[in-house]
Specification:
- With 60 residues, this protein is mostly helical.
- The chain has one domain (7-58).
- Helices cover 78% and strands 0% of the residues.
- It has two helices and no strands.
- The protein has helices at residues 8-27, 33-59.
- Helix 1 (8-27) packs antiparallel against helix 2 (33-59).
- The chain starts with 7 loop residues before the first helix and ends with a helix.
- The model has no long low-confidence stretch (mean pLDDT 75).
- Keywords: Membrane, Transmembrane, Transmembrane helix.
- It comes from Paraburkholderia sprentiae WSM5005.
- This is Citrate transporter-like domain-containing protein.
- The chain crosses the membrane at residues 6-24, 31-52.
């Protein structure tokens, strides 16, 4: 499986971004906007992985 079809690296980056956003929000951001944005991006990546991976596997 090539890097383009492998979502593991993207999921790991989103997890790291979420942790960094949480740490930043606890210190500086009053409303938690960065945490919500990082969580939304993580959910989008997980949805892409869930729905697009079978299509990629069927195409191969």
């Amino acid at each position: 499986m090539s890097l383009a079809l492998n979502f593991d690296w993207l999921t790991n980056i989103m997890a790291i971004l979420f942790v960094v956003a949480c740490l930043y929000d606890t210190r500086y951001d009053e409303y938690g906007v960065l945490t919500l944005a990082a969580a939304t991006m993580s959910l989008i990546v997980m949805a892409m992985e869930l729905f697009l991976r079978p299509a990629f596997e069927m195409a191969l």
